[in-house]
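Encoded backbone
================
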Amino acid sequence: MSIEALVFDVDGTLADTEEVHRRAFNLAFEELGMGWRWERAEYRALLAVTGGKERLKAYIAGLPLGGSEKKRLQERVPELHAAKTRHYTEIARQGGLALRPGVARLLDEAIGAGLRLGIASTTTAVNIDALLLATLGPAGLSMFDVIACGDQVRAKKPAPDIYRLAIDTMGVPPERAIAVEDSANGLRSALGAGLWTLVTPTYWSEGGDFSGAGLVLPSLGDRDQPLAGEPGERLQSQAWLSVDELTRRATAVAPLNAVQALYREP
């Protein structure tokens, strides 16, 4: 068996975008006169809910308000999310986003090795386009064979729908694909679809339950940003994760586990 594809999450995985998302939400709240402000600790807790519109709905549901007022606010979620997306794309356009260490290198190595690339994300196509354009330039979108977004599936992460959509569109069986994630919800989604999964947490997702992951690293690492203790602690070849070591690890162990079984269709 050989690996044919790498499928990446976006927010937190390709780039540590959550602070920019938080800033964009707060700018939208200010613009629309909501009187809300999400601090870092609060937003980190809200990230347990995947999807920006879903996060807004969950926040409103927890406010100490009457039913009619909550209903009125829930009806404003599309307006709020649209304003937030506009602010996010503007921040990205102005250079406010950067790829995490090693991401650009790993993408180049994967393409050089003949692997196909895909995206499986709960964020919107507009946000993905903004990130790829800001960090990889005009060629960013064409690097990926498929860009699967949250609004294209019935259930968002941790359900496996988005990964199934990505690999089905690519025509790649799950045992020949690797997922790259940063969160517990993303890991469960990828495992549920049958993919061996690498997890690189950030401040926003560290401390999650990453049991079932094939490998957990603080980042991919790079030649000028080597991982502490490597090689030797978790990596075998050098102080950054190469495509060669990644694919060797993924082909050594089948990804079947309890989380995958939980989502397997009867």
Remarks:
- The beta strands are 5-8, 116-120, 146-148, 177-181, 196-199, 215-216.
